């Protein structure tokens, strides 16, 4: 598929339909808050949340095709990453390299972000989602930007929806950062969000250097491809209400991360985050005060598929709600992203044509989470 020089008014992906102004301004159907359904006392899940049998989850307390229930994504201690012990540093670099190539995911501990800040961030958001509905509705979002309080992804009419509510906000670039669009409830929420996002920008920058070094390119190469300091950063807070028939639905459908890096602060007390490993779904067991890091589609493209984004999804818990914070560290939205030239050779030709992140996520906003179909559809013909 050749996309260079394509008319900007035409679709950039197979089966993509142009998005007209109306579809960007409003949702195709009335918005129903999933939390309200959960709290209604009903035990009948509406049909629009029932997944086809092939997509229904393996619940967190189930075994997966007989695999050892102790299996987990790698947990990596970053304590020696910036220290003077070169052997310790090489060991950490090697662990991250193996995790990126074998899993596309890993957890990091001793990452430098205060544990109290992590706890405060999660609990501030839990309080927000338990605020009166009129407080939350004041921040209701639209598909034009998704910023604010939402309950669905994608604008496909009649789509099977995910069992979750969320809050999405911009942090970088500064021109998009608008405190008025951030919750004012609870009182400390905006201050905590700001400090939390600042710390995760710093941690993401450290990890970008590691990814570059492990690819055998200069440590600032991936960061520069993202736009240097002019990156995009966003926060999506996920609220997954409990539901008795958790075996019929998903909190978030299977997808790969569309952006660069995702740093997820999970609810370590309630599992549900699942990662595809071969033909199996592995339920991640979060380490306390760890971040789950995953490689996104833009890193897959820049690395010429040396690193691969991996599908993941979220199962619903039948007895407990879950709150998680997903921080997205993305390229500057208007920079063409393509494999870095140092990784393109005659033996390993470029797999992807240039495409900006703005163009890429337009497709995703139209259709919602669809496995890895987005990045796979980008591949150049061989």
Automatic annotation (TrEMBL):
PROSITE patterns assigned to the protein according to its UniProt record, in alphabetical order: FE2OG_OXY
Keywords from the named record: Dioxygenase, Iron, Jasmonic acid signaling pathway, Metal-binding, Oxidoreductase, Plant defense
InterPro entries listed in its UniProt record: DIOX_N (IPR026992), IPNS-like_FE2OG_OXY (IPR044861), IPNS-like_sf (IPR027443), Oxoglu/Fe-dep_dioxygenase_dom (IPR005123), Plant_2OG-oxidoreductases (IPR050295)
Cofactor: L-ascorbate; Fe(2+)
GO molecular function: dioxygenase activity; jasmonic acid hydrolase; metal ion binding
Region of interest: Disordered: 1-24, 37-63
Gene Ontology process terms (BP): defense response; negative regulation of defense response to insect; regulation of defense response to fungus; regulation of jasmonic acid mediated signaling pathway
Origin: domain of life: Eukaryota
Domain Fe2OG dioxygenase residue range list: 231-331
Basic and acidic residues composition-biased segments: 1-11, 45-54
This protein's record includes keyword Metal-binding: yes
Matching Gene3D superfamilies: B-lactam Antibiotic, Isopenicillin N Synthase, Chain (2.60.120.330)
UniProt catalytic activity: jasmonate + 2-oxoglutarate + O2 = (1R,2R)-12-hydroxyjasmonate + succinate + CO2
Family according to the record: Belongs to the iron/ascorbate-dependent oxidoreductase family.
Cross-referenced PANTHER family: OXOGLUTARATE/IRON-DEPENDENT DIOXYGENASE
Protein name, as recorded: Fe2OG dioxygenase domain-containing protein
Lineage summary: Eukaryota, Viridiplantae, Streptophyta, Embryophyta, Tracheophyta
């Amino acid at each position: 598929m050749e996309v260079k020089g394509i008319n900007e008014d035409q679709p950039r992906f197979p089966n993509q339909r142009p998005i007209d102004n109306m579809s960007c301004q409003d949702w195709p159907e009335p918005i129903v808050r999933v939390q309200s359904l959960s709290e209604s006392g009903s035990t009948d899940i509406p049909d629009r949340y029932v997944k086809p049998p092939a997509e229904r989850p393996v619940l967190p307390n189930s075994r997966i095709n007989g695999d050892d229930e102790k299996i987990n994504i790698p947990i990596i201690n970053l304590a020696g990453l910036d220290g003077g012990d070169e052997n310790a540093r090489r060991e950490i670099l090697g662990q991250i390299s193996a995790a990126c190539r074998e899993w596309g995911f890993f957890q990091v501990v001793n990452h430098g972000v205060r544990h109290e800040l992590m706890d405060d961030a999660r609990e501030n958001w839990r309080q927000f989602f338990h605020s009166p509905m009129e407080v939350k509705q004041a921040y209701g979002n639209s598909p034009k930007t998704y910023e604010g309080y939402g309950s669905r992804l994608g604008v496909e009419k009649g789509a099977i929806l995910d069992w979750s509510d969320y809050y999405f906000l911009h942090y970088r670039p500064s021109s998009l950062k608008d405190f008025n669009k951030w919750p004012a409830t609870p009182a400390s929420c905006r201050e905590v969000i700001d400090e939390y996002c600042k710390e995760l920008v710093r941690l993401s920058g450290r990890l970008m250097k590691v990814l570059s070094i492990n690819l055998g390119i200069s440590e600032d190469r991936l960061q520069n491809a993202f736009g240097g300091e002019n990156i995009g950063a966003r926060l999506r807070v996920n609220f997954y209400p409990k539901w008795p028939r958790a075996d019929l639905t998903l909190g978030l459908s299977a997808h790969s991360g569309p952006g660069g890096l995702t740093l997820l602060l999970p609810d370590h007390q309630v599992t549900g985050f699942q990662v595809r490993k071969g033909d199996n779904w592995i339920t991640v067991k979060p380490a306390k005060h760890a971040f789950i890091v995953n490689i996104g589609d833009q890193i897959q493209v820049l690395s010429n598929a040396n690193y691969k984004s991996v599908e993941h999804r979220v199962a619903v818990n039948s007895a407990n709600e879950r709150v998680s914070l997903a921080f997205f560290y993305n390229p500057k939205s208007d920079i063409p992203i393509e494999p870095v030239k140092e990784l393109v050779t005659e033996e390993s030709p470029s797999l992807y044509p240039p495409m900006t992140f703005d163009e890429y996520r337009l497709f995703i906003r139209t259709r919602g989470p669809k496995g890895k179909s987005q990045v796979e559809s980008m591949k150049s013909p061989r």
